[in-house]
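hey team, just a heads up i'm posting the complex here instead of the shared drive bc the drive is being weird again. everything in one block, sequence lines first with there labels, then the predicted structure for the whole assembly after. its two chains so it's a bit long, scroll down
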Amino acid sequence: MIIDCHGHYTTAPGQHDLWRKSQLTAFREGRPSPGYPAISDDEIRESIEQNQLRLLRERGADMTIFSPRASAMAHHEGDERVSGEWARACNDLIARVVGLFPETFIGVCQLPQSPGAGLTASAAELERCVQMGFVGCNLNPDPSGGRWTAPPLTDRYWYPIFEKMVELDVPAMVHVSSSCNPNFHATGAHYINADTTAFMQFIQGDLFADFPGLRLVIPHGGGAVPYHWGRYRGLADMLHKPPLDEHVMRNVSFDTCVYHQPGIDLLFEVIDTGSILFGSEMVGAVRGIDPQTGHYFDDTKRYIDKLGLSEADAAKVLSGNARRVYPRLDQALRARGL
Amino acid sequence: MIIDCHGHYTTAPGQHDLWRKSQLTAFREGRPSPGYPAISDDEIRESIEQNQLRLLRERGADMTIFSPRASAMAHHEGDERVSGEWARACNDLIARVVGLFPETFIGVCQLPQSPGAGLTASAAELERCVQMGFVGCNLNPDPSGGRWTAPPLTDRYWYPIFEKMVELDVPAMVHVSSSCNPNFHATGAHYINADTTAFMQFIQGDLFADFPGLRLVIPHGGGAVPYHWGRYRGLADMLHKPPLDEHVMRNVSFDTCVYHQPGIDLLFEVIDTGSILFGSEMVGAVRGIDPQTGHYFDDTKRYIDKLGLSEADAAKVLSGNARRVYPRLDQALRARGL
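-- predicted structure starts here --
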């Protein structure tokens, strides 16, 4: 069984995005949000079958850990109420996808974060979603959308959501959203920078002493971290921290959203296979075909297949690690005899 | 001849840093800056001989393109006047190092940038330094120190310094300074993020159509870029830009400040050797010895030596590319028959 840990519902029916637009317009004009539009099961089915499901089958994966479109979370828009409505709408839509394709998708939720707001509402929404069968959440380390006004992830500001994650035994993927700072292209700079930033925060702090059971996935192959693994090992040493394997990597995993063979080769050369989860971010940031290979850039399973991993390592990366990091996914699969 | 393109004067005599502190105190208290202290040639000699010069010899390099300590530029402190005084003090000290060790060091200057200020003063300081024999500058894409309030490097805001660089035929290294944003560790996040951010800005924009002769060095091995080379090739394609080799890499080079063998291997696998300049950032961000190798993390020449490059490629990376990107360095060397 092959599990893609990183898929977003980037192909949701148009009414969903139109509602978001009208919600933000209403907010700006001081009006209450409009009612959420009707979306039929057929529309949802079509949006999935023609995109994620088709590509999943073509590429030979079985299942995707599925969450709302990351770039559309836009926690910097509106206020906490607006973010709350939007998160519920997005998560309810994911729940419908999972209900229609229960063998292929399992849910990860968006949180109703908002700049300056605490994380009580996020903890509550996470709990609501877990009750619906979700197995994790996406946590935005920069709800200001490229202004980076929140404290680092090691600050106690974040503890309410970490406490709830530990209580519910679910992980978070550390995933920013779109950027309102013109310096940062969303998928080309802001995403990768956030991954790198979060990892360095974990080195500087001592978060996992307070939360030994906390599990976080840093997407996009860990940002710049594996490429600069020597720098991070050296910085941990200069900061008098334990080696990274003890200090950070017991609690942190990277996905495989690295869109060329040399990058995947490096990832597997420096990071233990126990800390790597197969992911593609499909349909996502980079949708084209690589003229050098004739295959989709984000068909990351091809790169992994070429590594010549042992059967045991391949099993870990393609499903075992995901089942360990997302134990509620493991439980759901076991309940189906998988 | 082996040229390290990336060295900072991180070991300047203590009076220099003490003056900076008193300058900033005076600024906060509304007093004029104190007079710059006396520093003897012997003090400068000692600070270099025991550090950069010793390590350079131990590691087998001949020359360093030398600039003021990057983390101390701190353009977000004080105002434009304060930044101007500090840049001149730092650059004059570099000129003294070069005067004492003319065969080993050649100068690159710090610019008197300041948040919100234009770049006229920076262009003037660059010209002053070039008249003293400097061969380039360090350009800070985020003078706000981690708040990222300046426009992207492709914005016309930056054109006065690019025009002056082209006129003087000198390149810039794109190099941020310390971070006043607690999210970003300076050398572990802010530096690497800035490298990645700048590269993506160059993809999005069309800066080199306006400045075909502009040359920029992105340090720290290009941030996250080589590791995510497939992502950047794919994003360029999605943005309907020409291939990266045409669109960006005619004007942009990366250094080799990547502190482990697998990272250097990747860099050379995906980036043309014509676009890679040997650099170590010594004495800099990571000063320890790698327990896995028994050698300094930042002894990057060791990693390059292990690549098995052809003699022609090694000559490019270790000196030829630096002489091409910094033509005033080439002229200075030719004048000495080198």
